[in-house]
Amino acid sequence: MASHRRPKQPSRARVTVLTTAAAAAVAFSANAANAAPSAKPSVDEVKSKVDKLYQDAEKATEQYNGAKEKQEKLQQEISTLQDKVARGQDELNKLRDGIGTMASAQYRTGSIDPSLQLFLSSNPDDYLDKASTLDQLSSQQVEALKKIQEKQRELAQERQEATDKLKDLAATRTELGKKKQEVQGKLAAAQKLLNSLTAQQRAALQADQDRASRASERTALSVSVGVGSGRAGAAFSAAQSQIGKPYVYGATGPNAYDCSGLTSWAYAQAGVSIPRTSQEQANIGTRIYSVNDLQVGDLVFFFNDIHHVGLYAGNGQILHAPRTGTVVRYESMSTIGGPFMFGVRV
User: Fold this and answer.
1) For this structure, is 320 an active site residue?
2) Partner of 57 for a Cys bridge, out of 106, 115, 186, 330, CB 3.0 to 4.6 A?
3) Annotation says 259 is catalytic
4) What does pTM read for this prediction?
5) Residue 209 backbone class (left: φ over 0; alpha: ψ -120 to 50; beta: rest)
Protein backbone atom coordinates (compact mmCIF):
# COMPACT_ATOMS: atom_id res chain seq x y z
CA MET A 1 0.00 0.00 0.00
CA ALA A 2 1.51 3.30 -1.06
CA SER A 3 2.33 5.73 1.68
CA HIS A 4 1.01 9.29 1.48
CA ARG A 5 3.45 11.89 2.83
CA ARG A 6 2.39 15.42 3.59
CA PRO A 7 4.36 17.97 1.59
CA LYS A 8 6.99 19.77 3.65
CA GLN A 9 5.73 23.21 4.71
CA PRO A 10 8.08 26.16 4.31
CA SER A 11 9.40 27.50 7.55
CA ARG A 12 7.75 30.54 9.07
CA ALA A 13 10.99 32.56 8.71
CA ARG A 14 11.25 31.76 5.00
CA VAL A 15 7.64 32.82 4.42
CA THR A 16 8.35 36.13 6.14
CA VAL A 17 11.43 36.82 3.99
CA LEU A 18 9.62 35.98 0.76
CA THR A 19 6.64 38.13 1.71
CA THR A 20 8.87 41.11 2.58
CA ALA A 21 10.85 40.78 -0.65
CA ALA A 22 7.67 40.62 -2.71
CA ALA A 23 6.26 43.69 -1.00
CA ALA A 24 9.50 45.60 -1.61
CA ALA A 25 9.49 44.63 -5.30
CA VAL A 26 5.89 45.80 -5.70
CA ALA A 27 6.66 49.08 -3.92
CA PHE A 28 9.77 49.66 -6.07
CA SER A 29 7.80 49.01 -9.25
CA ALA A 30 5.09 51.43 -8.16
CA ASN A 31 7.59 54.12 -7.25
CA ALA A 32 9.46 53.66 -10.51
CA ALA A 33 6.24 53.97 -12.46
CA ASN A 34 5.11 57.06 -10.59
CA ALA A 35 8.48 58.85 -10.40
CA ALA A 36 8.71 61.82 -12.72
CA PRO A 37 11.95 62.32 -14.63
CA SER A 38 14.19 64.95 -13.00
CA ALA A 39 13.40 68.34 -14.44
CA LYS A 40 16.18 70.21 -16.19
CA PRO A 41 17.10 73.53 -14.59
CA SER A 42 15.44 76.59 -16.07
CA VAL A 43 17.33 79.24 -17.98
CA ASP A 44 17.16 81.55 -14.96
CA GLU A 45 18.57 78.83 -12.69
CA VAL A 46 21.40 78.12 -15.11
CA LYS A 47 22.13 81.83 -15.46
CA SER A 48 22.22 82.25 -11.69
CA LYS A 49 24.65 79.33 -11.30
CA VAL A 50 26.80 80.54 -14.19
CA ASP A 51 26.95 84.06 -12.75
CA LYS A 52 28.04 82.62 -9.39
CA LEU A 53 30.75 80.54 -11.08
CA TYR A 54 31.96 83.60 -12.99
CA GLN A 55 32.14 85.59 -9.74
CA ASP A 56 34.11 82.77 -8.11
CA ALA A 57 36.39 82.65 -11.15
CA GLU A 58 36.99 86.40 -10.95
CA LYS A 59 37.84 86.12 -7.25
CA ALA A 60 40.32 83.35 -8.03
CA THR A 61 41.63 85.45 -10.94
CA GLU A 62 42.58 88.30 -8.61
CA GLN A 63 44.37 85.80 -6.36
CA TYR A 64 46.09 84.38 -9.43
CA ASN A 65 47.11 87.90 -10.46
CA GLY A 66 48.56 88.53 -7.00
CA ALA A 67 50.60 85.31 -7.10
CA LYS A 68 51.81 86.10 -10.61
CA GLU A 69 52.88 89.61 -9.61
CA LYS A 70 54.69 88.23 -6.56
CA GLN A 71 56.45 85.67 -8.74
CA GLU A 72 57.68 88.34 -11.14
CA LYS A 73 58.85 90.53 -8.25
CA LEU A 74 60.71 87.65 -6.62
CA GLN A 75 62.38 86.71 -9.89
CA GLN A 76 63.63 90.28 -10.29
CA GLU A 77 64.85 90.44 -6.68
CA ILE A 78 66.64 87.09 -7.00
CA SER A 79 68.32 88.20 -10.20
CA THR A 80 69.51 91.41 -8.50
CA LEU A 81 70.82 89.46 -5.50
CA GLN A 82 72.64 86.97 -7.69
CA ASP A 83 74.33 89.84 -9.54
CA LYS A 84 75.34 91.39 -6.20
CA VAL A 85 76.75 88.07 -5.00
CA ALA A 86 78.76 87.65 -8.20
CA ARG A 87 80.18 91.18 -7.94
CA GLY A 88 80.87 90.69 -4.23
CA GLN A 89 82.74 87.46 -4.92
CA ASP A 90 84.92 89.27 -7.46
CA GLU A 91 85.68 91.98 -4.88
CA LEU A 92 86.51 89.34 -2.29
CA ASN A 93 88.84 87.56 -4.69
CA LYS A 94 90.66 90.85 -5.40
CA LEU A 95 91.03 91.54 -1.69
CA ARG A 96 92.49 88.08 -1.16
CA ASP A 97 94.78 88.56 -4.11
CA GLY A 98 96.01 91.80 -2.46
CA ILE A 99 96.81 89.99 0.78
CA GLY A 100 98.59 87.31 -1.25
CA THR A 101 100.68 89.94 -2.98
CA MET A 102 101.75 91.40 0.37
CA ALA A 103 102.59 87.95 1.63
CA SER A 104 104.65 87.18 -1.49
CA ALA A 105 106.61 90.41 -1.11
CA GLN A 106 107.38 89.63 2.52
CA TYR A 107 108.31 86.07 1.63
CA ARG A 108 110.81 87.25 -1.00
CA THR A 109 112.46 89.51 1.55
CA GLY A 110 112.39 86.75 4.14
CA SER A 111 110.24 88.80 6.48
CA ILE A 112 106.79 87.19 6.16
CA ASP A 113 104.87 87.76 9.32
CA PRO A 114 103.79 84.61 11.23
CA SER A 115 100.41 86.20 11.77
CA LEU A 116 99.99 86.66 8.03
CA GLN A 117 100.95 83.01 7.53
CA LEU A 118 98.22 82.13 9.99
CA PHE A 119 95.68 84.13 7.99
CA LEU A 120 96.67 82.52 4.71
CA SER A 121 95.99 79.08 6.12
CA SER A 122 92.80 79.76 8.13
CA ASN A 123 89.50 81.64 8.24
CA PRO A 124 89.94 85.44 8.54
CA ASP A 125 87.06 85.56 11.03
CA ASP A 126 88.89 83.21 13.36
CA TYR A 127 92.09 85.12 12.80
CA LEU A 128 90.70 88.57 13.52
CA ASP A 129 89.08 87.28 16.69
CA LYS A 130 92.57 86.75 18.02
CA ALA A 131 93.13 90.40 18.85
CA SER A 132 96.54 89.73 20.35
CA THR A 133 97.96 89.10 16.88
CA LEU A 134 96.82 92.41 15.37
CA ASP A 135 99.81 94.29 16.72
CA GLN A 136 102.06 91.98 14.67
CA LEU A 137 100.51 93.24 11.40
CA SER A 138 100.98 96.48 9.53
CA SER A 139 98.03 98.88 9.45
CA GLN A 140 97.67 98.15 5.73
CA GLN A 141 97.37 94.43 6.38
CA VAL A 142 94.89 94.94 9.20
CA GLU A 143 92.68 97.10 6.97
CA ALA A 144 92.81 94.51 4.18
CA LEU A 145 91.86 91.70 6.56
CA LYS A 146 88.94 93.69 7.97
CA LYS A 147 87.64 94.37 4.46
CA ILE A 148 87.83 90.66 3.65
CA GLN A 149 85.97 89.80 6.84
CA GLU A 150 83.25 92.37 6.11
CA LYS A 151 82.88 91.21 2.52
CA GLN A 152 82.59 87.55 3.57
CA ARG A 153 79.83 88.37 6.04
CA GLU A 154 78.02 90.48 3.44
CA LEU A 155 78.22 87.68 0.88
CA ALA A 156 76.93 85.10 3.37
CA GLN A 157 73.95 87.31 4.17
CA GLU A 158 73.15 87.93 0.50
CA ARG A 159 73.45 84.22 -0.34
CA GLN A 160 71.06 83.35 2.51
CA GLU A 161 68.61 86.02 1.34
CA ALA A 162 68.74 84.64 -2.20
CA THR A 163 68.17 81.10 -0.88
CA ASP A 164 65.12 82.24 1.13
CA LYS A 165 63.66 84.05 -1.87
CA LEU A 166 64.16 80.99 -4.07
CA LYS A 167 62.13 78.95 -1.57
CA ASP A 168 59.45 81.65 -1.55
CA LEU A 169 59.46 81.63 -5.36
CA ALA A 170 58.91 77.87 -5.46
CA ALA A 171 55.94 78.18 -3.07
CA THR A 172 54.53 81.08 -5.09
CA ARG A 173 54.76 79.09 -8.32
CA THR A 174 52.84 76.26 -6.66
CA GLU A 175 50.14 78.71 -5.51
CA LEU A 176 50.01 80.22 -9.00
CA GLY A 177 49.41 76.81 -10.54
CA LYS A 178 46.61 76.04 -8.07
CA LYS A 179 44.86 79.34 -8.70
CA LYS A 180 45.11 78.86 -12.44
CA GLN A 181 43.51 75.43 -12.12
CA GLU A 182 40.79 76.90 -9.90
CA VAL A 183 39.96 79.61 -12.44
CA GLN A 184 39.92 77.15 -15.32
CA GLY A 185 37.77 74.74 -13.30
CA LYS A 186 35.16 77.41 -12.55
CA LEU A 187 35.06 78.52 -16.18
CA ALA A 188 34.77 74.92 -17.39
CA ALA A 189 31.89 74.28 -14.98
CA ALA A 190 30.12 77.41 -16.23
CA GLN A 191 30.58 76.35 -19.84
CA LYS A 192 29.22 72.88 -19.05
CA LEU A 193 26.08 74.46 -17.62
CA LEU A 194 25.68 76.67 -20.68
CA ASN A 195 26.13 73.67 -22.95
CA SER A 196 23.23 71.95 -21.16
CA LEU A 197 20.84 74.60 -22.52
CA THR A 198 19.01 74.31 -25.79
CA ALA A 199 20.04 76.46 -28.73
CA GLN A 200 16.98 78.63 -28.13
CA GLN A 201 17.88 79.13 -24.47
CA ARG A 202 21.47 80.02 -25.31
CA ALA A 203 20.19 82.51 -27.85
CA ALA A 204 18.05 84.13 -25.14
CA LEU A 205 21.06 84.53 -22.88
CA GLN A 206 23.09 85.98 -25.72
CA ALA A 207 20.29 88.44 -26.37
CA ASP A 208 20.65 89.62 -22.76
CA GLN A 209 24.37 90.22 -23.33
CA ASP A 210 23.63 92.07 -26.57
CA ARG A 211 21.16 94.31 -24.75
CA ALA A 212 23.81 95.08 -22.13
CA SER A 213 26.28 95.97 -24.88
CA ARG A 214 23.77 98.23 -26.60
CA ALA A 215 23.04 99.91 -23.28
CA SER A 216 26.78 100.50 -22.92
CA GLU A 217 26.90 102.08 -26.36
CA ARG A 218 23.99 104.36 -25.49
CA THR A 219 25.76 105.35 -22.30
CA ALA A 220 28.88 106.17 -24.29
CA LEU A 221 26.87 108.61 -26.38
CA SER A 222 24.98 110.03 -23.43
CA VAL A 223 25.91 113.29 -21.77
CA SER A 224 25.33 111.55 -18.45
CA VAL A 225 28.85 110.11 -18.63
CA GLY A 226 31.16 112.68 -17.13
CA VAL A 227 34.51 114.01 -18.25
CA GLY A 228 37.30 113.54 -15.76
CA SER A 229 40.10 115.93 -15.00
CA GLY A 230 43.80 115.51 -14.31
CA ARG A 231 45.34 112.07 -14.22
CA ALA A 232 42.06 110.40 -13.28
CA GLY A 233 40.47 111.95 -16.38
CA ALA A 234 43.38 110.79 -18.54
CA ALA A 235 43.05 107.24 -17.14
CA PHE A 236 39.31 107.27 -17.80
CA SER A 237 39.84 108.45 -21.39
CA ALA A 238 42.37 105.65 -21.91
CA ALA A 239 39.85 103.09 -20.61
CA GLN A 240 37.18 104.51 -22.93
CA SER A 241 39.42 103.72 -25.90
CA GLN A 242 39.30 100.04 -24.90
CA ILE A 243 35.50 99.64 -24.97
CA GLY A 244 34.63 96.42 -26.78
CA LYS A 245 37.85 94.59 -25.88
CA PRO A 246 37.14 91.11 -24.43
CA TYR A 247 37.50 90.05 -20.81
CA VAL A 248 40.25 87.43 -20.38
CA TYR A 249 41.44 86.40 -16.92
CA GLY A 250 44.99 87.51 -16.16
CA ALA A 251 45.07 89.90 -19.13
CA THR A 252 46.45 93.44 -18.84
CA GLY A 253 45.95 94.69 -22.41
CA PRO A 254 46.12 95.96 -24.96
CA ASN A 255 44.03 93.23 -26.65
CA ALA A 256 42.12 91.92 -23.62
CA TYR A 257 41.68 92.69 -19.92
CA ASP A 258 40.42 91.43 -16.62
CA CYS A 259 38.94 93.97 -14.19
CA SER A 260 42.12 95.11 -12.43
CA GLY A 261 44.09 94.65 -15.63
CA LEU A 262 41.99 97.39 -17.24
CA THR A 263 42.30 99.84 -14.33
CA SER A 264 46.06 99.35 -13.93
CA TRP A 265 46.56 99.72 -17.71
CA ALA A 266 44.39 102.85 -17.85
CA TYR A 267 46.30 104.60 -15.07
CA ALA A 268 49.62 103.57 -16.61
CA GLN A 269 48.57 105.46 -19.76
CA ALA A 270 48.10 108.51 -17.52
CA GLY A 271 51.61 108.12 -16.15
CA VAL A 272 50.51 106.64 -12.82
CA SER A 273 51.71 103.23 -11.66
CA ILE A 274 49.16 101.45 -9.45
CA PRO A 275 49.22 97.87 -8.09
CA ARG A 276 48.06 94.96 -10.22
CA THR A 277 45.22 93.46 -8.16
CA SER A 278 41.92 94.92 -6.99
CA GLN A 279 42.75 94.22 -3.33
CA GLU A 280 46.02 96.12 -3.60
CA GLN A 281 44.44 98.96 -5.60
CA ALA A 282 41.93 99.38 -2.78
CA ASN A 283 44.77 100.38 -0.43
CA ILE A 284 46.07 103.39 -2.37
CA GLY A 285 44.83 106.96 -2.47
CA THR A 286 41.86 108.37 -0.57
CA ARG A 287 38.80 106.25 0.14
CA ILE A 288 35.35 107.57 -0.73
CA TYR A 289 32.32 105.85 0.76
CA SER A 290 29.50 107.90 -0.75
CA VAL A 291 28.57 107.46 -4.41
CA ASN A 292 27.59 111.14 -4.45
CA ASP A 293 31.21 112.11 -3.73
CA LEU A 294 32.73 110.05 -6.55
CA GLN A 295 34.39 111.74 -9.51
CA VAL A 296 34.99 110.42 -13.02
CA GLY A 297 38.09 108.24 -13.07
CA ASP A 298 37.93 107.22 -9.40
CA LEU A 299 38.44 103.51 -8.79
CA VAL A 300 35.28 101.78 -7.54
CA PHE A 301 35.26 98.46 -5.68
CA PHE A 302 32.56 95.82 -5.27
CA PHE A 303 31.87 92.68 -3.16
CA ASN A 304 32.93 92.18 0.44
CA ASP A 305 36.27 90.67 -0.55
CA ILE A 306 37.00 93.52 -3.03
CA HIS A 307 37.48 91.17 -5.98
CA HIS A 308 36.03 93.53 -8.58
CA VAL A 309 37.13 97.03 -9.61
CA GLY A 310 36.19 99.52 -12.32
CA LEU A 311 36.42 103.22 -13.13
CA TYR A 312 33.62 105.57 -12.12
CA ALA A 313 31.95 107.08 -15.20
CA GLY A 314 29.49 109.47 -13.57
CA ASN A 315 25.74 109.29 -12.95
CA GLY A 316 25.92 105.91 -11.21
CA GLN A 317 27.73 104.24 -14.11
CA ILE A 318 31.09 102.52 -14.22
CA LEU A 319 33.44 101.55 -17.04
CA HIS A 320 34.89 98.10 -16.43
CA ALA A 321 35.78 94.63 -17.71
CA PRO A 322 32.89 92.63 -16.17
CA ARG A 323 33.67 88.91 -16.50
CA THR A 324 34.32 86.05 -18.90
CA GLY A 325 32.10 86.22 -21.97
CA THR A 326 31.76 90.00 -21.86
CA VAL A 327 33.71 93.00 -23.13
CA VAL A 328 34.92 96.28 -21.64
CA ARG A 329 31.77 98.37 -21.31
CA TYR A 330 29.72 100.82 -19.27
CA GLU A 331 27.32 99.40 -16.72
CA SER A 332 25.09 100.66 -13.95
CA MET A 333 26.55 100.16 -10.50
CA SER A 334 23.22 98.62 -9.49
CA THR A 335 23.66 95.66 -11.86
CA ILE A 336 27.19 94.56 -10.90
CA GLY A 337 25.90 91.66 -8.81
CA GLY A 338 27.64 92.67 -5.62
CA PRO A 339 27.53 95.61 -3.22
CA PHE A 340 29.50 98.80 -3.80
CA MET A 341 32.09 99.00 -1.02
CA PHE A 342 33.93 102.28 -1.61
CA GLY A 343 35.83 104.31 -4.16
CA VAL A 344 39.48 105.34 -4.22
CA ARG A 345 40.80 108.62 -5.56
CA VAL A 346 44.32 107.92 -6.83
Assistant:
1) yes
2) 186
3) yes
4) 0.68
5) alpha
